[in-house]
Amino acid sequence: MRNNFPSTRASALIPRAAFAFAIISILGIGSRLDIFAQRNFSKIYPVRQSIELRLNNWSGQIEVQGCECSDIRMKITIDSKGTKVNPEMVNGVLMVDLGRDNPGVADVGDVNFLIRLPSNASLDLMTRVGNVKVSDIHGATVRARVTEGDINLLNVNTSSLIAEDKTGGIFFDGELQRNGSYKFSTFEGDITLRIPAYSTFHLEASAPNSRSIALGNFASAAMNSLGGGRKLSGTVGDGQATVNVMNFRGRISFLER
């Protein structure tokens, strides 16, 4: 007579399958918790006058887009659950400071910013690790500082610009204003400046290690080469703007816009 009881082997497999299912479920829950730990939120600030944005980030991307608009729209993505971001608007200055908002915290994780604001805004942006991208800005001043990452400045037309990088490249596509001041520096990585053919400026460019300074169509007899190609100094046109470029290990290149 045949009985309907499961075999010993089948009975042993049931607990194993249940255990495996439990492990998979736990791992799945952990993955979902990691996803849910990432927070996204948006803020809107009305603007009635010229605006200045000061953003001090620790780690993460910063992208700022200029527009014909009357407000600031900020989208923020935060990877770490405990990280605080508290933007503050004071007298036309929008301040975001991860160090101020998270005192005593060694690692706040990645915080990414996407910001749209009036194109006449002035900017002071900093992140230790991450890229900075600025586009369509025509304010008075732009300053971008990065420790590890790239700086991209696209369609930027300002009278005062500083781009400082430690281990990354810098790309500038914009115009040089009359009597404007422009400073670019990095320790390693390429610096590329794409400017209109009619640009006039006084140049001080240094590339101590690579000796690679390519002026392209901006080369002129008024340019002096010093230190065996380590430095170029001189004027292009009537030299109305001032351009200082320092690249310790990488290349410096000028392109026509």
Tell me what the structure shows:
The chain is mainly β. The protein has helices spanning 8-37, 98-101, and strands at 39-46, 52-56, 62-67, 71-78, 88-90, 93-97, 111-118, 122-129, 132-137, 141-148, 151-167, 170-186, 191-195, 201-206, 213-214, 223-226, 231-236, 241-247, 252-256. It has 2 helices and 19 strands. The protein folds into 2 domains: 37-130, no CATH class; 169-257, no CATH class. Residues 1-14 and 19-36 have low confidence and may be disordered. It has a 19-stranded mixed β-sheet that branches. The termini are far apart.
Count up the helices: 2
Overall geometric form: globular
The helix/strand class is: mainly beta
Number of strands: 19
* Cα distance spanning the termini: 92 Å
Q: Helix and strand succession? A: HEEEEEEHEEEEEEEEEEEEE
Mean pLDDT: 88
Radius of gyration: 26 Å
Helix content: 10-25%
Q: What amount of the residues lies in strands?
A: over 45%
The overall number of domains is: 2
Q: Main beta sheet, described?
A: 19 strands, mixed
Low-pLDDT runs: 1-14, 19-36
SSE map:
Layout lengths: L7 H30 L1 E8 L5 E5 L5 E6 L3 E8 L9 E3 L2 E5 H4 L9 E8 L3 E8 L2 E6 L3 E8 L2 E17 L2 E17 L4 E5 L5 E6 L6 E2 L8 E4 L4 E6 L4 E7 L4 E5 L1
Parallel strand pairs: 2-6, 2-8, 3-7, 3-9, 8-10, 9-11, 10-11, 11-12, 12-13, 12-18, 13-19, 14-18, 15-19
Antiparallel strand pairs: 1-4, 4-7, 5-6, 14-17, 16-17
Descriptive tags:
257 residues, 19-stranded mixed β-sheet, mainly beta, 19 strands
Briefly summarize what is shown.
The protein has 257 residues and is mostly beta strands.
